[in-house]
Amino acid sequence: MVLNLTAAGENGEAMAAATGLVEAAETSQNPFAISFALLAYGFAYRDVKPLRAIDALRRGLAIAHDNGVRAMESFTAMTLGPLEVEHGDSMTALDYVTRTIRNYSDAGNTAVIRLPLACLATVLDRIGRYEAAATVGGQWTRNMHKLPGCHRTRPRRTPPDKPARARSPTTIPAVNIAIWGRC
Looking at residue 104, what is its pLDDT? Predict the structure, then answer.
């Protein structure tokens, strides 16, 4: 429910729904449940209190990794990447995205690997590597309108030293392709 509320842009309701979620999951002593609750909590707070979200997501990532819950490790790492770029460390963000791509690749999951690749494009865009972001994300440019949530994308980022028109149009989808318009 928290993830759906966040996707719908209902941050206040999502934060309210996340209250007590982690504590309830901890009573189960189930690493998947705890890491999932921390992911949901991080999602709820990522726009309003990003540092709180990063702390929760890092904790969830550690729990998922330590217990071999690779799906949650991947989801959480993919969510952490863009937050780290804006509020943490860019190299750590790339590490998170690399981990996600590696997990999907190791599992042979070619269908879902597009999400972490889109996240990589987002991270590259946010650290100012616009051509690399366009290269990684460019293959989805033609089918952008078919992806769920693409009507709710974030505004593109323009490099401060370039006018808005100077930027390659293929960069725009690379930034906006991920789930709910962001990673």
Answer: 87
